[in-house]
Every structure is written in structure tokens, then in C-alpha cells.
Amino acid sequence: MTSALRRVYHIAAFSWYAFIVKSLAAKDGEELPAGIFVYGGPWKYLTFLNLLLQMSFFGLAAVSDLQPGEKSERALNRCKDLLFSVFAFPVGMFVVILFWTIFAYNRELVYPATIDAFFPPWINHAMHTFVFPVLLGEVLVQPHIYPQTKHALAALGAVGLSYLFWIIWVYLSVGIWVYPLLGHFSSAGLVGFFFFNMTVVTSLYVLGDKLNSHVWNKKH
Predict the structure, then answer these.
(1) Which top-level group of life is the source organism from (predicted)?
(2) Residues 21, 58: contact at Cβ < 8 Å?
(3) Quick one: pLDDT at residue 35?
């Protein structure tokens, strides 16, 4: 794909995510439905954090496309590759897969029906569906250099633990789990669920690396 089309793709993806984040921010002050509580705001939801992550990546990619100069370009490319390979691709794919898997089993465990009146279907799909094709599109438009696996997994583990501590803090503060599903687990079950999720995220990181190598026929 030509550099011009790649620029258009990155700018379009960034604009899309900025529009979604702005649409969510516009709902600030509206009466919250059952299933959403005030404490922690949207920052307690992995879906929202992922939207910010995707917007940040595509914004950085768009800036990198427009940067002249080899030194600045190399630095930006390293940051862009790290952000995509270690976080944007595996976390984004994880959000889509886990959300729709639980939703298909019992939506009340992750996205109660009362929320439909607050978030119209198109916003739900913007948050939980369209992330998937946009990330696959990024794999096709540009190759990415992947870091050493042990470093990538250490970073993923640190971020995963940080989010786990954050949602536990929210629970201890208000006595409500961010996701109703978590209330069905014992302490040991929560630990097992966390490690299961980290296994899935790790597998998605490896998948991203394999897809990148397959599409661009380049070993990293």
C-alpha cells in the first residue's frame, strides 16, 4: 500500500476513535442507567481505556506518517511499533473477543440490557466490534517491528496487574464490581480468571506477531 493511502487510513482511524470518545464524553451529566455507577467514571471500563489506546496509537501513526527527518521518524516508529504490537493489537482484540463471548452467553454479566437506552447499538458496535476490522486493516497497511517476546509479555503482565488492582480498588471503595460477571467468582476464581485472560492476551500478542510476519514475509 502506498504511503499516501497509509496516511489516509491512519488519519481516518484516528478521527473515528476521536469521534467515538467525544460521543461518549458528551453523555457526561446524563442520568446513568442501572448497571453503570459513578465512581471511577468511564476510566474503570477496559472498553473505554481501549478506545483511548486505539486513538492514541492511530494518532501517533498519523503523526509518524507526516514526520520529516530520519531521527525523529525512527524514534516515532519505535514508539508506534511498540504501542501497536504490545498493547493496541492484543488488548483491542481481547476486548472484542471477550465481550462478545460473554455477551452471547449472558449479556447481563457484562452489558445489562438497561444500558441499551443509554448507549445506542451503533456505539456498542463502535466500542466492541469495529475495533477488530480496524486492527486487521492496520496489519495490512504497514509492517511493525515486534520487541523480544519476554519484554513484551512483561509489559503486558504489568498493565494487566495494574488494571486488576484498579477494579479491585473500585470494588473495595463502593462494593460493586465493574462487571457483574466478577461477582460470581470466589477469590481463587478471580485469580484463575485473571490468569486465563492473560493467557488469551498473550496468545493474541503471538497471533499479531505471526500475522505481521506472514503478511509482510519478514521475521522480527
Answers:
(1) Eukaryota
(2) no
(3) 82
Question: What pLDDT was estimated at residue 145?
Answer: 93
Could you list the residue range(s) of the whole structural domain that residue 34 is in?
3-216
> pLDDT tens-digit profile of 77-109?
889 999 999 999 999 999 999 999 999 999 999
Classify burial at 62, counting beta carbons within 10 Å of its beta carbon; exposed 0-12, middle 13-18, buried 19 or more. Answer: buried
How far apart CA 170 and CA 57 sit, in angstroms, is 27
User: CB of 202 within 8 A of CB of 208?
Assistant: no
| Assigned C-alpha cell, 42 | 468511564
φ, ψ (nearest 5 deg) of residue 135:
-70, -40
C-alpha grid cell, residue 160: 494487566
Average pLDDT over residues 167-177: 96
Domain count, the chain: 1
